[in-house]
Amino acid sequence: MTQQAKLKNDLKGASSPYLQQHQDNPVHWQQWNAETLQLARKLDKPILLSIGYSSCHWCHVMAHESFEDISTAEVMNELFINIKLDREERPDLDKTYQLAHQLLNRQAGGWPLTTFLDPQTLTPFFSGTYFPNRPKYGMPAFTDLLKNIAGVFTEKREEIKQQNGQLQEALQFVSGSVSRAEPSNEVTAKEITEDFINEVLQRADKDFGGFKGAPKFPQAAIWQTVFELSVNGDSQREQINDHLQKTLSAFADYGLYDHLGGGFFRYCVDEAWDIPHFEKMLYDNGQLIKLMAEAGHYFARGDWMQRVKQSISWLSEQMQSEQAAYYSALDADSLNADGHSEEGAYYVWSQADLQSLNEEEQAVASHYYGLADKPNFEGQWHLVCRNSLQEVAEKTGIHPKQLPLLIESVRQQLKQKRDQRALPFLDDKQLTSWNGLLLQGLFSAARQLGDEDIFQKAKMAQQGLQQTVHKDEQLMACYRDGAAYQPGFLDDYAYLAKALLMRLTFDFDRESWQWLIQLCEALWTKFADQKNGGFYYTARDAETVITRHKSWSDDAMPNSACQALEVLWLVSELTGKLDWQEFIEKSLHSAKHEAVKAPLQYPSVVRLARAFERGSEIWVLRGDLHQTVAWQEYLTTGQYSERWVFSLRSDADVLEQKYPAQEKPVAYCCRNRQCFPALDSIAAIKEFLN
């Protein structure tokens, strides 16, 4: 019996819930590890690499059609070494093979990603996404494709070898792994900011908010930058403000938001933001909680703030682990009343579902949640709030002042009814990077809402991460079933470091400060390209497949190199450590030259470049915290994104050289690369600011 013939499905003991979903497939799935790759090289057998994630709808479709089918599995097992990969556990590999797909096909990829690798170099020679089990959508049957690809691999090895060499060079160049000569001319923050704003306004969907076309993704990094630019008085402020508020209202009122339980879905499939793809991801909710809290506070939108509170309640109810950190995602699919898996089954409604409400409540539900309109999802309703309270009052004859209590009663009753349904599949791995983004959202919401309970939730989550994924001064990317695994990526270090910096503006505890400094040192020694500027996505000692990625662009998550650079900048300003200054300037020079070509793809660069050009504003208050609390409240009132305020006790043994304690409380300010004499009263602070 050959070594390949001895293979069996090896996913039963996998750490990933997504891989475990495939443990009963007749496909002889293997995990990505040295042993599997060595076997493929030894047998010289092409690798079929299937990349997906647990809440991916089309991953489920392909699994049901092909991977659960015995005849398809037989072809796969005979012709390939089959590897199943969770893109959330190995985002580095997903980045590489998505980029390779784009280069091979001249179009973006997605999930499931189905790519075929040369076993000797791990370079893809053919790549696709979803393939049907029979010819349709203009695609061949999956088994026919498999046989053709295996034949090409056998018959055209020299051509494949030549193509692979070219693809490897292209990947190393496009991924940023190969250093390039930067133009000597300076690109200003003003230049890329104006181009960014113009592009936002040109693409703006003036009818529904967001950008024109469908599907519609929230793209939180873009709107966070738009918000901060509008707050700080950049050009075309009125137009930007109007469209930002229209967009955030669409997020809050239409189908992207879960109006009963709270939380935001991943995206909407239509241009009107009516129908979502029903998966909920932690990284989206972390970013949107932060954005909606800050914008809600600034624009005095109580309805947005209510969405923030409900979303945090949902996280506590359905997504929080025993360790106080948060799980990754809820699937789009769940069991319907007949016991069949169906997209959106947990969230959609029929008129019959309202029969438990009284007549007045039914009228309110119908007009407030859109059930008086035509069904909007396969003969049923996904709840959307397009009518204002005044419009609902006119249609129901109920006084507007009575409506909020009635709406809340309806919401609670419908939620209680929904809670009895089968919950969508929960991916219960805890990802450090996604928790880092959520911590940023929680700390921001606690600040904007003045909510001590939210701050305590954030502190508990931080402690949970420290106890689970922080081992021997190393950060791990994943945690599940009592074990931390997979050395951390740039996302993990950068997002968590930014969250810790935000936490220190509440209470400057020594443990958080020391952890932040450890993360900064790791960013500098493990990830920074100290010679050319920027950060690699993987650490120096990590596994490298084809290339190390180095990028300044944003995707569904904010660019982690920008967050890393921002943290190093602010910590260096706070501590007086000037070692990183040249690196920071070199990195921003490179980032701006990359961003100027397509600013909308680089919102984090636009935001950071503008902030750096304006200069930081850092306040350190020293003294009895009971005396300085009023100073801190005054300095943090309102929205001013570049002001960082830290309050330390007189006897705190951190930052004492640059900000020494005095006989009475003092406030130190360093602003726009200049430090000023200590101020000793609230009156002096007000006079200084004015």
UniProtKB/TrEMBL annotation:
InterPro entries: 6-hairpin_glycosidase_sf (IPR008928), Ssp411 (IPR024705), Ssp411-like_TRX (IPR004879), Thioredoxin-like_sf (IPR036249)
Domain Spermatogenesis-associated protein 20-like TRX: 9-172
Gene Ontology biological process: carbohydrate metabolic process
CDD domains, per database record: SSP411
Highest rank taxon of the organism: Bacteria
Name recorded for this polypeptide: Thioredoxin domain-containing protein
